[in-house]
Amino acid sequence: MNCIQDWPEPIVRVQALSESGLGRIPDRYVKPATERPVGMDPMGDGDGIVDIPLIDLAGLFSGDPAMVRTTMGRVAEACQQWGFFQAVNHGVPPYLMDQARHVWREFFHLPMEIKQEYGNSPKTYEGYGSRLGVEKGAILDWSDYYFLHYLPHSLKDHKKWPAQPPHHREVMEQYLGELVKLGGRLMKVLSLNLGLKEDYLQNAFGGEEVGACLRVNFYPKCPQPELTLGLSSHSDPGGLTILLPDHDVPGLQVRKDGKWITVKPAPHAFIINIGDQLQVLSNVIYKSVEHRVIVNPNLERVSLAFFYNPRGELLIEPAKELISPENPALYPPMTFNEYRLYIRLKGPRGKSQVESLKSPR
Ligand code: OGA
Ligand code: NI
């Protein structure tokens, strides 16, 4: 099954291309006309009206039953109708969010020779990378990234984390510890909102030891942003994603009713979204929604995508409690390891995988 050994072509760092000062992007990055970001709204101002829901999570911890109910209701609505929301007062200290983003920005600005020591391969994707998918000749995205494992402990390997800048590992250990806690709290809210036992989703993901990993995206400045994408349209293959966006450079677009909406990041908010495994577990009550990233001619952008996932070897299938003769299971059971091979081989392709796996009805 796992026969991917190496990249099909020499790797080009998009940051190096960008810094070379070229006026036109190479053909490899030019998207077909139908995928280009037409009607671009690079600063996310748009008409200023439509955006994903913004939810103050302080209500969950307020101890006031009416506030708790209202907040849970807002989360339920967002998961069903948008698959996305921004959260403030989520419990992760703002200074830690800023530090985490800062140490990664510093990493990407280290000399190339240092970064190359961490160059990744498609076998595990861990380390410094510049493409998703191994198809020779594929059109590529305008970004570099760094991928690492945090949980289960057996997969965490500090040697594969950057040793620079100083304090990088300490900051990331603290930050990822906080995000695992936040992920666990959200699992409870999502379970209860589905009418399941509070610990249902956590147990389905592996209980104490879930899967948790991080992809840090670096989107360099781009001389022709209208022709390419920083990250092509995809849905996240995992459970729940907690994204720390760049504080002042928008770029993430979410698909809603066939239109692309540019998210305007709120100060110290996380952007939280449902991944494919929660769409499967909830039997499509929760939606794993397509999103993509546009790039900017004048500004680079850094984002930290934290993935709270099922452990790789567990079978994921729609919760029995949500299945009835009127609501048959829409997906067959599959392990997450098997599931995520698809994006690792083919790269980001909208929602084609989760759609193709639907049981025939
Ligand atoms: C991702 C992702 C969005 C962003 O890494 O899966 O969708 O804003 N990132 O970088
Ligand atoms: Ni994503």
TrEMBL record:
<dbReference type="InterPro" id="IPR005123">
    <property type="entry name" value="Oxoglu/Fe-dep_dioxygenase_dom"/>
</dbReference>
<dbReference type="GO" id="GO:0046872">
    <property type="term" value="F:metal ion binding"/>
</dbReference>
<dbReference type="GO" id="GO:0120091">
    <property type="term" value="F:jasmonic acid hydrolase"/>
</dbReference>
<dbReference type="GO" id="GO:2000022">
    <property type="term" value="P:regulation of jasmonic acid mediated signaling pathway"/>
</dbReference>
<keyword id="KW-0223">Dioxygenase</keyword>
<dbReference type="GO" id="GO:1900366">
    <property type="term" value="P:negative regulation of defense response to insect"/>
</dbReference>
<feature type="domain" description="Fe2OG dioxygenase">
    <location>
        <begin position="209"/>
        <end position="310"/>
    </location>
</feature>
<protein>
    <recommendedName>
        <fullName>Fe2OG dioxygenase domain-containing protein</fullName>
    </recommendedName>
</protein>
<keyword id="KW-1184">Jasmonic acid signaling pathway</keyword>
<dbReference type="InterPro" id="IPR027443">
    <property type="entry name" value="IPNS-like_sf"/>
</dbReference>
<dbReference type="InterPro" id="IPR044861">
    <property type="entry name" value="IPNS-like_FE2OG_OXY"/>
</dbReference>
<dbReference type="GO" id="GO:1900150">
    <property type="term" value="P:regulation of defense response to fungus"/>
</dbReference>
<comment type="similarity">
    <text>Belongs to the iron/ascorbate-dependent oxidoreductase family.</text>
</comment>
<keyword id="KW-0611">Plant defense</keyword>
<dbReference type="GO" id="GO:0006952">
    <property type="term" value="P:defense response"/>
</dbReference>
<keyword id="KW-0479">Metal-binding</keyword>
<dbReference type="InterPro" id="IPR050295">
    <property type="entry name" value="Plant_2OG-oxidoreductases"/>
</dbReference>
<dbReference type="InterPro" id="IPR026992">
    <property type="entry name" value="DIOX_N"/>
</dbReference>
<keyword id="KW-0560">Oxidoreductase</keyword>
<dbReference type="GO" id="GO:0051213">
    <property type="term" value="F:dioxygenase activity"/>
</dbReference>
<dbReference type="Pfam" id="PF03171">
    <property type="entry name" value="2OG-FeII_Oxy"/>
</dbReference>
<keyword id="KW-0408">Iron</keyword>
<dbReference type="Pfam" id="PF14226">
    <property type="entry name" value="DIOX_N"/>
</dbReference>
